[in-house]
Amino acid sequence: MELQNGRPADAAGRMDKEIRTYDFLDGLGVDYQRMDHEAAFTMEACKEVDEALGVEMCKNLFLCNRQKTDFYLLLIPGDKVFKTKELSKQIGSARLSFASAEYMEKYLDITPGAVSIMGLMNDKNNVVRLLVDEDLLKEEWIGCHPCVNTSSIRVKTKDMFDTVMKAMHHEMTVVKLTGEENK
Predict the structure, then answer these.
(1) Contacts for 44-53 with beta carbons within 8 Å, 24 or more apart?
(2) In this predicted model, what pLDDT tens digit does every residue of 22-37 receive, in sequence order?
(3) What is the pLDDT of residues 85-108, one digit of tens each?
(4) CB within 8 A of 103, min separation 6: which ones?
(5) pLDDT digits (tens, 9 = 90+) for 110-167
(6) CATH code at 162?
(7) In 72-156, where does DSSP find H-type helix?
(8) How far apart are CA 140 and CA 78, in angstroms?
(9) Is 84 inside a domain boundary?
(10) Where do the YbaK/aminoacyl-tRNA synthetase-associated domain residues begin and end (predicted)?
């Protein structure tokens, strides 16, 4: 695994959604570093990538309400425990659960294991609400997948939430998660 600046020199064999991610970032003039790696499906698999990128990958959880009418992309630090009840209170949505792969592909054009904030560029109708744990905003960098789980990128947190999110026409809701039941 080797850290490189910007997009890959050769796009051969790469999925369109990955290339669209690089096109999107390049079009905004946002600097990013990238690395290719074996498919990473779990936070444990991301540890080696984290070290090479010099950033802790965040957990990207795709959630929905019981009726499957409201969808959320929650970003939290990789080492933080997620408690549904704690989040439900803050966003006023009871009975949150993980959304199915069908909705993930429909709204974000992403498959399980590759969930990423970058998928919001594919949510043109703003169906998915972005939720970001306040602790992530304190970090210099944010690490994520470019819509596939065989590459990872890092972007300055300020660039991601000031420039990239505005260009995606998504606003974020900042939440405070402690991982404790009784909050």
Answers:
(1) 46/78, 46/152, 48/1, 49/1, 49/143, 49/152, 50/78, 50/143, 52/1, 52/2, 52/3, 53/3, 53/141, 53/143, 53/152, 53/154
(2) 999 999 999 999 998 8
(3) 899 989 988 889 999 999 999 999
(4) 62, 64, 68, 71
(5) 998 889 999 999 999 999 999 999 999 999 999 999 999 889 999 999 999 999 999 9
(6) 3.90.960.10
(7) 84-91, 101-108
(8) 15
(9) yes
(10) 37-161
